[in-house]
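Retro notes
What went well: the complex prediction finally ran end to end.
Inputs used:
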Amino acid sequence: MSDADPLVVFTPSGKRGHFAKGTPILTAARQLGVDLDSVCGGRGICSKCQITPSYGEFPKHGVSVAKDALSEWNAVEQRYDDKRGLKPGRRLGCQAQIMNDVVIDVPPESQLHKQVVRKAASARAIIMDPATRLYFVEVDEPDMHTPTGDLERLARALSEQWEIPAIRADLTLISKLQPTLRKGKFQVTVALHKSHKDEAARVLEIWPGLHEAGLYGLAIDLGSTTIAAHLTDLETGVVVASSGIMNPQIRFGEDLMSRVSYSMMNPGGDKEMTAAVREALNTLAAEIAVEAEIDADLIVETVFVCNPVMHHLLLGIDPFELGQAPFALATSSSISMAAHELDLTSINPRARTYILPCIAGHVGADAAAVALSEEPGKSDDLVLIIDVGTNAEILLGDKSGVLACSSPTGPAFEGAQISAGQRAAPGAIEAIRIDPTSKEPRFRVIGCDLWSDEEGFDEATESTGITGICGSGIIEAVAEMRMSGLLDENGLIGSAAQTGTSRAIPEGRTHAYLIHDASAEGGPRITVTQGDIRAIQLAKSALYAGARLLMDERGVDNVDRIVLAGAFGAHISSLHAMVLGMIPDAPLDKVSSAGNAAGTGARIALCNVAARAEIEKTVGEITKIETAIAPKFQDHFVAANAIPHKTDPFPELHKIVTLPNPNFNAGGRDGGEGGRRRRRKRSEA
Amino acid sequence: MSDADPLVVFTPSGKRGHFAKGTPILTAARQLGVDLDSVCGGRGICSKCQITPSYGEFPKHGVSVAKDALSEWNAVEQRYDDKRGLKPGRRLGCQAQIMNDVVIDVPPESQLHKQVVRKAASARAIIMDPATRLYFVEVDEPDMHTPTGDLERLARALSEQWEIPAIRADLTLISKLQPTLRKGKFQVTVALHKSHKDEAARVLEIWPGLHEAGLYGLAIDLGSTTIAAHLTDLETGVVVASSGIMNPQIRFGEDLMSRVSYSMMNPGGDKEMTAAVREALNTLAAEIAVEAEIDADLIVETVFVCNPVMHHLLLGIDPFELGQAPFALATSSSISMAAHELDLTSINPRARTYILPCIAGHVGADAAAVALSEEPGKSDDLVLIIDVGTNAEILLGDKSGVLACSSPTGPAFEGAQISAGQRAAPGAIEAIRIDPTSKEPRFRVIGCDLWSDEEGFDEATESTGITGICGSGIIEAVAEMRMSGLLDENGLIGSAAQTGTSRAIPEGRTHAYLIHDASAEGGPRITVTQGDIRAIQLAKSALYAGARLLMDERGVDNVDRIVLAGAFGAHISSLHAMVLGMIPDAPLDKVSSAGNAAGTGARIALCNVAARAEIEKTVGEITKIETAIAPKFQDHFVAANAIPHKTDPFPELHKIVTLPNPNFNAGGRDGGEGGRRRRRKRSEA
C-alpha cells in the first residue's frame, strides 16, 4: 500500500488506508480492522458484507469520489440481487473492488459487532460478540497420499481461511462429519464456539453448504417462582421470542429455604427437584422454538442466571450446605459446560451452557447478572440496586467499591402467599388508587390500558376478566391503604366504623379491604386481608433491612439513586414502594427501573463473550455481606415492620387519571428520558 | 544453603546439596529435583517417601556419614511402623531431618517415576509418569467472610500444596464434593488427571482422608477378532490382571471389510456394531475388576489401540468411507475424552479415555502403538516390524525414516477360517513337528509343556483335551508339511501314494493331512485340509506383499532385522514363518518377537503421559503407503502365493526333542538374550 494507491475511507469508523487497485472492499476492511461481517469468507454467497459506496465530494475526509471508484457490478452481485434482492446502492464487499479513492459506509446490519437496540430503561448497550458464530469453509478433499482425517482437514481449512488456531469436536459431531462434508461437496458451514476460557474452538454443528437458517441462544433467568427465557438471534442479538413458566419446584417449597428443608427431610429430594426443573427447562425450550418457528437444533447456547439454591439444584448438587452457616457453595465460579450435562435434550445435542458466577452462598449468579447489566462499579454516584424477587439481591456501590447481599423476602412480592394473589398475567390487578376521602378504589388490570372508572373498561376486560392481584398490584394496594387511612402504622386494617367505608369488612377477628366483588356473577371476590398485609410487611422489612445493612456497611444514610430490578421490578411504582418502606427514601426522579436486570445480564453474557470474563473479574471485587449473621439485619428488620405515618408526599399524583406505570423517570446514565412513556403490554412477562 | 550446612547426597541419582539443619529429607529431595514420591505431601501418613540413610565412609561422594546424620526416629515413624511396618533401615523422608552430612538412598519403590520391569523380549522400558495421580490435600474450611465455593478452595489448596495451576471438574464430581470434604474433615485425596493437551487438571475422583486403595487404568488392544485388556496399577505400573474376550462384532463379519460391508448393506448396522463392542468392553472391564478384586470405580483411565475400522466403530462413526478409496478417516488425531462418551459405564463415571492417533485409513492406532513400543524411528539398523493379526500392520524404517502400511491378511493366522482352527486357548495345538522320513507328527498343546510323543503327555492333557489348532500351530503345520514333502510348491497336498503316508487322506477332490484323530472316543479329528492351506497361502501372501512393498519403497532387498509382533506374534516360530514365506528372509538370530507390541504401546501411553505427545509427533513423521492402490502390491501378492522348494535350512532343529518356542534369539537392542528360555504358560493370552 503506497500513497499512490487509491484511498479508501470507511464510515462510520473513519478508518482509512491506501490499497492497490483491484483490492476487494472486504479485504481492505479486514486489513484495517473495520467491523465488516462475513460468514462465507468472501465467496459472494452469504451477503453479510454488504456496503454502500458514497460518491461525490467529502471535504471532511479529504476525498473526492468518482463514479468509477469501484469495479463494475459483477455477475456474482447480479445473481445475488436476482435471487434475494440487494437494497439500492448496496454492493457486496467481497465483490466490489477498489479502483479509485472511495468512501464506504458499513450499514449497521453488516457490522459483525452490531450494537443491539435496548429498551431505553436499560443501563447498557449490548455489543454483539457471541461465543458461537457461523463460518463457511471450503475443506480439502481427502487424498490417499496425505491421509489426514476429515476433522483434521476441517481444522486446517478453518485455520487457513479463518485463522482459528485449533478446534475440538464431540463424537456426535465427528460421526456426522463425513456425510455432511460429502453432501456439501466439501463446502460446509460450521457453528464454532469460542469460549473465553479455552483456546480451542468447539465445533457445535455442521451443515452442508451455506447455512442460512440462523443460530440462536437462550438467556434464562431461573427464578425460585418463575423461569423466564429469551430466545435470541446470535447473529443480530434480536430477542425473537420470550416465554416464561412457573418453576415446578414450587411444589417442594415456595421459598428457597423450604426447598433446602425438603432436600434435608427427604432422601433424594434434591434429585427430584433437579429432575423437575430440568424437565421444565426442556419444555420451555421446546415451546419457545415452536413459538419462534425455528428448529430447536438451532439453539446452540444457553446462559443461566439464578440464585445459589436454584444454581445448585439445576446442577444436581444437594443445596444442604446452603441451609446452614457458613452457607458454603459447592462451587462459586462460572461454569462452562455441555448443555446435555443438564439433561437439556430439547435443543442442539452439542449446545453449550454458561452459568454466571455466584458471589456468595446467598448472593447468586442472578446478582452477578444484575452487576453485569447495571454496572454499579462503574457508577460515579452511589447507586442502590434492588432486584426484587422471592429472594432479593441487593447491590450498593460506585466506582470506589460495591457491596452485595441477599434478603429472603419470600414470594409475596410475586403475588404468592397473598389471598387473592396471582402471577402477572392478563386479568391481574397491577395498579390501584384509593381515594383518600371516599376510600373507593379504582384499578387497572394487565391486558387493558383503561382504569376501572373509565368508560369502556368493562367491555375491554370482558375477555380477560378480573382474576386476582399481582405483585405490583398488592404493593400499590397496601401503600394506598396506608395513605388513605385504611391502615394504621402497625399495619392493622381498620373496621368500617373506624374508616368510614363499607369496603372494610370483617374477616375473622380482623378486617379486610374489598377491592372488587364479582361473586354475584360467580366471579372472584378480591380483598386485601390482614394476612396479606402481614406477608407484605415481612417481605418489605426484609428488603429494607438488607438495603440498610449495606448502607450501614458503607457508612451512609442516603444513596444518590435507586434502581429497581427484577422480573416485575419494572412494574413497581417507585412512589408506592417508598410509601410502603420497601426502599430507602430518595428523590422520586432518582428511582428508576432496570426491568429484568438479571435477565438482561444473561442476555449480555449470551451475546458478548468478553462480558463473561468481565463479570468473572467483577464478582471477585464485590464485597459480600451475609445478612443471616449480621445482628443489625434483625434490628433493621424489626424496625422496618411498621408503615410510618406519612401524609401523601405527592398529592398531585392522585389527580392524574391515566397514570403511566412504571411512573419513574429513567435516571440511568444513558441520559434519562424524562416524561412519560407508553407502557408496554405485559402478557407473560 | 551454604557450604557450612550439612551436605546431603542422594543415590542413585547422585544429586547433592547443602541444607540447613532440620530440613526434612523430602524437602531437600524436592529442592534438588530428586525423584522421591509423596501422596500426602509430607504429612507422614502415606509412607510413599521411604528412604534409606547410609552410614560410614563414602569416598566416591566425599562424605563421611555419622550415626547422628539424621534426626531421631520420631513418633510419626513409630506409629507408621507399628501400624504397617517399615523395612529395617528405612525412614520416612518427610519426618527424618538432616542434622549432618548424609547419603540417602531412594529405593525403587519410592521413586515417583519408577521404571516398570518389562519382559526381556520387550524393546523399551516404561517410566511411570501417568496422566492420573493421587494427591492428598488439606482444604481450608468455608468462611462466610471470604465466601468462595468448596471447589475453589480445593483448587487453591492444590495450587498451594501441589503447584497445580488450575483444575476442572464434572458436575458429578462437584455434586459429591461437599459431603466428601466434610467426611474427611477437609482432608481429602483427589485423583487428578493432567492431560498433555489441557493446562487444567481434571478432578476425576475424591475420597475423604488418605486414599490407599490404589488407582488403576486399562490398556485395551481392540482387535478385529479379540479384545485384550491389561489392568494396570497406575502407581506401580504393575499389570495386576489381564483378560481377553472375543470381539462380538465377529457375528457381523469376520474381517474388517465384511464389517464395513455389513454397515453399508444394513441401515444402522454401524450402530449395532458400536453397541456390541461397547457392551463387550463393559463386560470385560467389570470382569477384570472382579478378577483383580478391586472396586471398578478405581479404574480411572482407559487407553485404546485399534485399527481404523475398529476405531470408528468404537467411536460410533460409520466406517463407510474406510471401505472405498481414498479411505478417508473421519478423524486421524489422538482422542482424549470422557470414557462415558463411549458408554463405558462399568468403570469410574469420570474415567478418561485416550485413543492413540491413526496413521492412515488402513493404518491405525494399533500401528501407532507398535511404533511407540518398538520405536523403529530410533533404530540404527533397518528394522521390519510386522504386527500379525486379522489386519497386519507393517512398519519398516530406521533413524532416517519410517514407512508404514497395513495388509488385509484375514483371520486365518488367528485360527479362524481354518477347518480345525480355534483361538489360542488350552487344548489348542500350538506347535507341531513332522518327521521328514516317517511323515509322523508330534505336537504340543497350550496348557502342557510336553510334546505329544513324550511320556506323560496323555495324562497332562486329560483335563484340556486336544481341541483344535491355533494360529501358531497352523503356521508351523503348513511349513512342516512343506519341509517334509507333504506339500508341493503350489501348496497342493499330496496323496498317500505320492507322500507315502496314510495320514494323507482323501477329502473331496483334494487331500488332507491327519494330525490327530480322537473320533473313536467321540473327540475331534484334527486335519489340515487343502482349504486350510489356501487360507494360509492367501494370508501369508498378503503379509509378505505388504512387507515387500515397503522394501521396494525404501529401495532395499534385505532388512537388518525383523520383529514379529501381535497378540500371538510372540508364539510364531520365526523359522516356520520364514519357511512359509510369511516374512522376508533374514538371519534367524535377527528375527525377534515383541509380543503384543500394540498392547505394550497402549500400556506405555497409559503409564506415561509424555509418550502420548511423543507418538502424536511420531505419527506425523511416518510415511504411509496405501497397499490397496499400489499395483506392485498385487504383483507381490501373486508372486508370494507359492511356497518355494526349500531344503530344510536348519536340519539340526529337528533333532532337538524339547524345542523352545518361540525359538528365536531375542535380537532387540536390549542386548539379546541368546539361548533358550522357558516359555511362559499361555492361557487366555
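What we learned: Chain B has four domains: 7-110, 116-208, 216-355, 383-663.
What to try next: split runs per interface for comparison.
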